[in-house]
Amino acid sequence: LVGPTRCSGRVEVFHRDSWGTVCDDHWSITNAEVVCREMDCGTVIEAKRGAFFGEGKEQIWLDDVQCTGSESSILKCPHRALGVNNCGHGEDAGVMFCSPGILNELKMYFVRLMNGSNRCNGRVEVYQGGHWKKVCSSDWTKEDANVVCREISCGSPLSQTIPSHFGEAHNLNGVKTHCVGNESSISECSHQDTSESCTDATVVCTNSKPIRLVNGTNRCSGRVEVYHQGQWGTVCDDRWGMQEAAVTCREMNCGNALSVKYKAFFGGGRDQVWLDDIECTGHEKTIADCPHRGFGEHDCDHSEDAGVVCSGRPPSALMD
After folding, report:
1. How far apart are CA 21 and CA 13, in angstroms?
2. In terms of domains, do 90 and 137 share one?
3. How far is CA 57 from CA 27, 251, 289, in A?
4. What pLDDT is recorded for position 157?
5. Which of 57, 78, 97 is the last residue of a domain?
6. CB 255 within 8 A of CB 319
7. CB 3.0 to 4.6 Å from 297: which of 4, 54, 144, 293, for a disulfide?
8. Does residue 319 sit within a domain?
């Protein structure tokens, strides 16, 4: 596993004298359980998709892995032939696991950002006392956000977005945190459990290459906007199509693209038009990675703002 600990990270297997990644097609909690057992790493917390732990650089060895859960090794699960795949490294699979007993023994938190486009943005949750808890926004400050972004190696906070952008945690108890700002982990900050109903704290860190969908019916539909040079801006619909929409939906962790929208279907933006003439192959990790004119280079106005409707969160990823 290539990631922040021995027991969480991008899944890689060794074949023909080289390491290679696993594509996230059909990637599920059952597959992650097999990896967890093979690594002797305790209980699965989450199965991760969309290169959550970063992209590999070498071969993609496995695709369409479909474990039953009883296998002793990921290589014994049904899968395409080694090296046969239809993926790019933007689809590298990952796992996050560690037995609650180990976490409690170390008296530490796990912190995660949920429902974001990647691991560096989302609503803030911590693992404490054997349970995931949501961090409440009422006492959430930039100092708290600084500590979290630094702890998960995501730079510094760009913004604390409106909570509705990342959805709401359900059936989780709340915790209020207070950081000075120089702590290395949110576990070092003061904290207080609360039984009160509270709004989720959220954060977007600098390493997140943030993207958002605006004015849709939910976080997985709307006008496409990207964050650049401290400002949100739109995408022009010149050359906008299903491949571009597919990359956008995957970057947002929103499943498959159902339809593309043109001519400011979700209303026009008010600030910059950041991207124009985007031509994705479909395998890129982010929309900004696709060939395009260059940030701010365009011949459009906001009547041509692009939009997308995605299917929603991939069903095989265990998120809560």
Report:
1. 6
2. no
3. 20, 19, 16
4. 87
5. 97
6. no
7. 293
8. no
Model confidence pLDDT, tens digit, residues 264-290: 999 999 889 999 999 998 888 788 889
Compute the mean pLDDT over every residue in the chain, rounded to the nearest whole number. Answer: 83
What pLDDT is attached to residue 317? 30
Specify the residue for token string 């696993």. 22
The answer on 195 and 270 residing in a single domain is no
CA distance 214 to 232: 11
Tally of domains in the chain:
3
- Indicate the pTM of the whole model: 0.48
Taking CA atoms, 33 is separated from 42, 45, 55, 114, in Å, by: 9, 9, 21, 20
pLDDT digits (tens, 9 = 90+) for 169-181: 888 899 999 999 9
pLDDT at 106 over 80: no
Domain match, 221 and 255 both: yes
**Final residue before a domain boundary, out of 190, 207, 224:** 207
What is d(CA 268, CA 152) in angstroms, rounded to the nearest whole number?
35
Band (pLDDT 50/70/90 cuts) for residue 204 is confident
Q: Which domain holds residue 18?
A: 2-97
Q: Locate all alpha helices (DSSP H) within 50-198, ordered by sequence.
A: 100-105, 142-151
- Are residues 80 and 172 part of one domain? no
**Same domain? 198 vs 295:** no
Q: Give the whole-number percent of the chain exceeding pLDDT 70.
A: 87
Q: Do 30 and 63 share a domain, yes or no?
A: yes
Contact 163, 200 (CB under 8 A): yes
Residue 108 in this model has a pLDDT that exceeds 50: no
Please state, as a whole number, how many other Cβ atoms lie within 10 Å of the Cβ of residue 139: 18
| CATH of residue 217 | 3.10.250.10
- With tokens 């990823």, the residue in question is 317
- Report the amino acid identity of residue 173: N
Name beta bridge partners: 11.
none
My answer on whether 200 and 217 are in the same domain is: no
